[in-house]
Design a protein that fits this description.
The complex is a heterodimer of chains A (about 240) and B (about 210). Chain A is of the alpha/beta class. Chain A has 9 helices and 10 strands. Chain B has 9 helices and no strands. In chain B, helix 2 packs across helix 5 and helix 4 crosses helix 5. The chains are: A alpha/beta (about 240), B mainly alpha (about 210). The structure holds adenosine-5'-diphosphate (ADP) and magnesium ion (MG). The site of magnesium ion has 3 residues of chain A, from helix 1.
């Protein structure tokens, strides 16, 4: 479903991703962890080309999107992304946030987009907020709307970049619950997070990154109980304290 | 003698002047919104040549007195006084509005562009549906204050022989020229300018309130 082949990314002189090879099968759930600045965001953003690799290939669903004249915007429609800062459209109501892209880029009828939108809002427990503006919602509610917004495009892949890091502690669980529920759907998920509970519960695989490289890759129980790599061990000891 | 000044004929004469003032102001504002928005978007664009060109226009125009444009357009083109006034004021005002629009576009964080991009929106659709509406909301106060400036600055067009409000007040001054009359006359004209500007600034407040709720 996703294949990154020999990805390098430079920001000026800064070598942020170093020869990354990363594959995700259809329906697989992968959690990426690693210290701040290790390149996790840059890696996940390469999957939908929010970040353009300096070299290497990105394949999504059989299409090489790094190729010249690849249908990038088309492929992006099948990849939902959830950001740390939610990035809802503040001038639109919750329901309008959900229907905007389906109507504008997929040509879905407004009524239909609203109908599926309400279904997803119900699923994330926010049906009664359909006509509220994002500014009137709590952080946890905004992030659940952001997930519903992504889902209303009916994506094959969902990317999450630290979806709970900007939330107050009491709101983290409501967002994780929605993500766990989503994982049962069989959708392909790539999640940057330090929520070990979530990783153990849903991840098929954990990827540990450090200094622009993937340095360990294992099943969650193996990784958390017996990390092979010294830096992974150190990192885990810090976040568990 | 003040009664003299307030006769219906004079008031009518001033009101016709106000009509000319408002014609120039409204035409200038509408044209400047269109041109200024395009220039502001160009200035904000990632296309360096486009941004540079727009920047040169904005900077060269903003740093020249508007009266110079009014005189230049009037005496270098065959346009009549009112039309040349509109053209000259539009040249100037569109540069000011372009800067305001650019600041508005800059005020919208990268996160909005990225969210839209991740959903498959292209650059233009994102600009039209996501970024511009938010930018316009943020710059409404600055725009309104520029519109008020435009209404007031129409008085410069008097210099090229337009009988707008100020021009007509000066004509009346010919007949009513003792200090009390002149003082009253200009007080009256000031009050007349105040009305459309008061309406404008309150429209802005009303809009702001509506958005906050
Ligand atoms: N747009 C950018 N310009 C320059 N440097 C960047 C940019 N984005 C990220 N970086 C740098 O790349 C490195 C990796 O960043 P990032 O992928 O955000 O790490 P992580 O998500 O693991 O914290 C960091 O050192 C960061 O400062
Ligand atoms: Mg990050």
């Amino acid at each position: 479903m996703i294949a990154l082949k020999g990805i390098d990314k430079h920001f000026g002189h800064h070598h942020v991703l170093k020869n990354i090879h990363f594959h995700v099968k259809s329906g697989e759930k992968v959690v990426i962890i690693g210290p701040s600045g290790s390149g996790k965001s840059t890696l996940i953003r390469c999957i939908n080309l929010l970040e353009k690799p300096s070299s290497g290939e990105v394949h999504v669903d059989g299409i090489e999107i790094t190729a010249h004249k690849a249908p990038v915007t088309k492929v992006r429609q099948s990849i939902g992304m959830v950001f740390q800062q939610f990035n809802l459209y503040p001038h639109k109501t919750v329901l309008e946030n959900l229907t905007l892209a389906p109507v504008l880029v997929k040509g879905v009828r407004k009524e239909e987009a609203e109908e599926t939108g309400m279904k997803y809002l119900e699923r994330v427990g926010l049906k009664d907020k359909a006509h509220a503006y994002p500014a009137h919602l709590s952080g946890g509610q905004q992030q659940r709307v952001a997930i519903a917004r992504a889902l209303n495009m009916h994506p094959k892949i969902m990317l999450f970049d630290e979806p709970t890091s900007a939330l107050d502690p009491e709101m983290i669980q409501e967002v994780l619950d929605v993500m766990v529920d989503l994982a049962h759907d069989g959708i392909t998920m790539v999640v940057v997070t330090h929520e070990m509970g979530f990783a153990k519960q849903v991840a098929d695989r954990v990827i540990f990154m450090d200094e622009g490289k993937i340095i360990e890759e294992a099943k969650p129980e193996d990784f958390f109980n017996h990390p092979k790599n010294e830096r992974a061990r150190l990192f885990l000891s810090k976040i568990f304290r | 003698m003040i009664k003299d000044l307030f006769k219906a004929e004079n008031l009518m004469f001033l009101m016709q002047g106000l009509a000319v003032t408002l014609t120039i102001a409204v035409a200038t504002i509408l044209l400047s919104i269109m041109i200024g928005t395009i220039l502001g978007i160009a200035r904000h664009s990632r296309n360096k040549a486009l941004s540079r060109m727009s920047g040169v226009y904005i900077e060269s125009v903003r740093n020249v007195p508007m009266l110079l444009f009014i005189l230049a357009v009037r005496f270098m083109t065959p346009l009549n006084a009112v039309v040349s006034g509109i053209v000259a004021m539009t040249i100037f005002t569109s540069a000011v509005i372009a800067e305001i629009v650019r600041a508005g576009l800059n005020s919208i964080g990268q996160g909005q562009w990225e969210a839209a991009k991740s959903q498959g929106l292209n650059h233009v659709t994102t600009l039209v549906h996501i970024v511009l509406p938010q930018a316009l909301r943020n710059i409404t106060p600055a725009l309104v204050s520029q519109f008020i400036t435009v209404v007031k600055d129409t008085s410069f067009v008097w210099a090229v022989g337009t009988e707008e409000l100020t021009g007509r007040a000066i004509i009346l001054m010919g007949k009513h020229n003792n200090p009390v009359q002149v003082f009253t006359l200009f007080g009256l004209v000031a009050a007349i300018y105040f009305i459309p500007n008061y309406v404008l600034s309150h429209m802005a407040h009303w809009r702001q309130r509506k958005i906050l709720h």
